[in-house]
Design brief:
With 764 residues, the protein is of the alpha+beta class. It has 19 helices and 19 strands. It has helices at residues 2-13, 16-55, 120-128, 187-213, 217-229, 234-270, 286-313, 315-319, 335-350, 358-394, 398-409, 412-442, 460-467, 500-506, 603-616, 629-667, 669-677, 682-719, 729-748; strands at 58-59, 76-84, 87-95, 115-118, 139-143, 155-160, 170-171, 174-175, 448-454, 472-480, 494-497, 509-510, 519-522, 537-544, 549-555, 560-564, 577-579, 588-590, 594-600. The strands form four sheets. It has an eight-stranded mixed sheet with strand order 9-19-10-11-17-13-16-12. A six-stranded mixed sheet has the order 5-4-6-3-2-7. The radius of gyration is 34 Å and the shape is elongated.
């Protein structure tokens, strides 16, 4: 305790410069803890959103046989999810029953037929887009409160309808599940996001907090060595040093948590692109607060203990400024196996032997990324010293020689200055790999968009209205041939009832179509249907509005028309038989058939067609192949989180560089003063300062770009996508690296003062 009190007394009574350094350490820790809190808050935000989704999930009490009890008396609900641009719009159609149930969270009462409850965001969209009211028919009774919404921007509506208006649906007796199937971010994707954020934010953050904990390390070590020489024990020296570092870290942690609380209130109300949350969701959990309150001071203690170890073990060498030992080569050890795994996956991808076993890759890939990241940090002093030694021997330039000799004697300075930016560039490559993989999932390359509806859910009049919706360029009815079910794998084909004009609107590229005649189609990019042989006959069941059944025998024709579609989203497949609509008897429609509408894939057209479909029948369920709107929403959230991580990583990397470079320049003032007294010009001193910082940084950035691109490629190889090599991302990374070098150069120029103070060369 006496050593801790001594450390606090030295902190308060050792001059203004020491107090300023303490405040800088606390301020730097506050910035770091605020960034850490933002990262730790993300899982809590997602969990809170998923919890409210689960709380509003409809349920039905079931007996031992898993049969819903009271289904005849219970209300019925139909839940539909439609794409509204790249966002999902959820509509719950509620038909009341004889059984009275409590309303879901966010509602004071369930909507009666003709009434609707909408979310605040959907209320704004309805005022902005009047055509959207076709999908939400009824009189607006009120707004859904925050308890019933996942986030403030959610498009959600409860729509009251009569029971005879509802086609399909499930009985409901209560609301609330323990979990939800509609996670904001799927668990597997969330694991990738966590791992990426750890590389983008947490690794640079650890380096940054370590840099802040070791401000003015040289002066502090000399003071600690003096205390050791006057009789203080080794552990006592470490306690004295810890008193300052831990006090600064603890003060910075409290300030950082306060800054995060304010930032959470502001950002949650403004929102990030595609990702908003309620302020209460962003409140830190007790475990996250304890991680910040314990982790940051513990890291400061560890960094301070490492810095004080030399002063405690050999104080005379510190006071006499003995030459430091060269860094051990074991720092290169983590880089070798990490690069071995990464290069192995790259070679496998280049030779066409991409790994199929994802369980092994799921373990090896994160291990390789972590090993390469740690290897980059630990190898910088070794490589910096080797580069400095080589250049100092061969160079005839005075500034370059002076700079390289200093880096040779003090290679640890490169680690403090360059590590933050080097890790940022390395992590940026990994983020690019994740975004490329997500882009492969979300990209719709087809020029057309299909809308698939069950034909038995719409009347003949509604079918004609749907086919004439503005924006629809083609349509057809697709039906599977009938089978009695006796054979395990009976031969079957698909029949498409459409005219040639309708078919051309559905398929982008199609050969000559015989008008009014049946034919079969072939797609060279699709597997052929072996059952669709010319001359083979298949039955199709039809039914009219009176319920009368009819069987239509269809013979596979000899005539064949070739069409091309590589997206797999067209309404046709190889082997399908196309029949004119006149082949159907009057008043009869196919059973278990699907009505397919096709439009252009431009987002505005898709939105217009969906609105038009809702205007014909707002309760009809529409499938949109190629547009998984929930997946698009997840990708938007993931991209926003990763972009936020990159911004935090950029803040941390730049802050770590500024703190380390400024502190290193201040520590070197005695050497700069000595060189000035020996006749060195200010231009020479500035050149020395720039070269000292820029060359190790440039070397580290080149290494980060190379290893980062290799790690990114290996990640894409193990991801199972079609893209392994991202050549488009190389110029961006090189531009970022060049920008970091330019910033480092400009930031180093003013660090050599104009005033010469000879007192510095003999002051302890």
């Amino acid at each position: 305790m006496r050593e801790l009190l001594l450390g606090l007394r030295l902190l308060s009574g050792s001059g203004r410069g020491n107090r300023v350094r303490f405040l800088l350490m606390a301020g730097g820790s506050a910035i770091g803890v605020c960034c850490l809190a933002m990262v730790l808050a993300i899982p809590g935000i997602l969990a809170a959103q998923d919890g409210r989704k689960a709380a509003r999930q409809a349920d039905c009490a079931r007996d031992d046989r898993r049969v819903c009890t009271g289904a005849a008396l219970a209300p019925v609900e139909l839940r539909l999810t439609d794409p509204y641009g790249s966002r999902p719009m959820l509509r719950v159609f509620h038909a009341p029953g004889s059984l009275t149930i409590d309303p879901p969270p966010g509602l004071t009462a369930l909507p009666a037929p003709g009434e609707v409850f909408v979310s605040p965001k959907l209320h704004e969209e309805l005022e902005r887009e009047p055509g959207l009211a076709q999908l939400v028919p009824g009189r607006e009774r009120g707004l859904i409160s925050a308890q019933g919404l996942a986030h403030p921007d959610e498009l959600f509506a409860y729509i009251g309808v009569r029971r005879d208006q509802l086609k399909g649906g499930e009985p409901v007796t209560s609301y609330g599940w323990r979990y939800t199937y509609d996670e904001t971010v799927e668990p597997s994707t969330l694991d990738i996001v966590r791992f990426t954020l750890a590389g983008v934010v947490l690794l640079p953050l650890a380096v940054y907090l370590s840099v802040c904990a070791r401000l003015s390390a040289a002066a502090r070590i000399r003071r600690l060595a003096a205390l050791r020489l006057v009789g203080l024990s080794k552990k006592g020296v470490q306690r004295v040093n810890a008193a300052e570092t831990v006090a600064a870290a603890l003060l910075g942690t409290v300030a950082g948590l306060g800054v995060y609380a304010v930032a959470n209130q502001l950002i949650s109300r403004v929102g990030l692109p595609g990702f908003r949350w309620y302020p209460s969701d962003g409140s830190l959990s007790l475990s996250a607060v304890l991680i910040c309150l314990i982790g940051c001071p513990a890291l400061a203690w560890f960094a301070g203990a490492l810095g004080a170890r030399k002063a405690a073990a050999n104080p005379l060498a510190v006071r006499r400024s003995a030459v430091e030992k060269p860094p051990a080569r074991w720092g290169l050890l983590p880089l070798v196996p990490g690069l071995g795994i990464v290069v192995g996956y790259c070679v496998a991808g280049a030779t066409g032997h991409a790994p199929r076993d994802t369980s092994i890759s799921a373990v090896l890939m994160p291990v390789a990324v972590v090993l390469v990241g740690i290897g980059l940090v630990l190898s910088l002093p070794v490589l910096s010293r080797a580069l400095a030694r080589t250049l100092a021997r061969t160079s005839r330039s005075l500034p370059l020689g002076l700079a390289m000799r200093r880096n040779e004697l003090e290679p640890g300075g490169a680690l403090r200055v360059a590590t933050g930016l080097v890790l940022l560039v390395y992590a940026a490559s990994l983020v690019q790999g994740v975004l490329i993989e997500l882009d492969q999932v979300s990209k719709n390359t087809s020029p057309v968009q299909a809308y698939v509806l069950r034909l038995d859910r719409v009347t003949a009049e509604q079918q004609k209205a749907l086919e004439s919706v503005a924006g629809v360029r083609g349509h057809g009815v697709t039906v599977r041939s009938w089978s009695d079910g006796q054979a395990e794998f009976p031969p079957r084909i698909n029949a498409v009832f459409a005219t040639c004009a309708q078919l051309r609107g559905m398929v982008p590229k199609m050969g000559r179509c015989p008008t009014g005649r049946p034919f079969r189609v072939k797609n060279p990019h699709d597997l052929p249907n072996e059952d669709s042989r010319p001359g083979a006959s298949f039955p199709f069941r039809l039914r009219n509005e009176k319920g009368e059944a009819h069987v239509l025998e269809v013979r596979v024709p000899e005539r064949q028309v070739v069409f091309e579609d590589e997206s797999g989203l067209a309404a046709l497949s190889s082997g399908d038989v196309v029949l004119p609509p006149s082949a159907l008897p009057d008043g009869f429609r196919p059973e278990d058939a699907m009505l397919t509408l096709v439009s252009d894939s431009e987002p505005g057209t898709v939105r217009s067609v969906l609105d038009g479909i809702g205007g014909v029948d707002p309760t009809v369920e529409v499938d949109t192949p190629g547009v998984v709107v929930t997946a698009l929403q997840q990708i938007t959230v993931v991209r926003t989180i990763l972009a936020m991580g990159m911004v935090l990583g950029l803040i941390i990397g730049v802050a770590a560089y500024l703190v380390a470079a400024t502190d290193r320049a201040i520590e070197r003032r005695p050497q700069v003063t000595a060189l000035s007294l020996l006749g060195a010009r200010p231009r020479t001193l500035r050149s020395v300062q720039v070269v000292q910082v820029v060359l190790p940084l440039a070397m580290g950035l080149v290494l980060a770009v190379v290893t980062g691109k290799a790690a990114e490629s290996s990640y894409l190889v193990t991801g199972g996508g079609a893209i392994f090599w991202d050549g488009a991302g190389v110029p961006l990374l090189l531009a970022c690296a060049l920008g970091a070098v330019v910033i480092a150069t400009l930031g180093s120029l003013p660090l050599v003062g104009r005033r010469i103070d000879p007192e510095l060369i003999r002051r302890d």
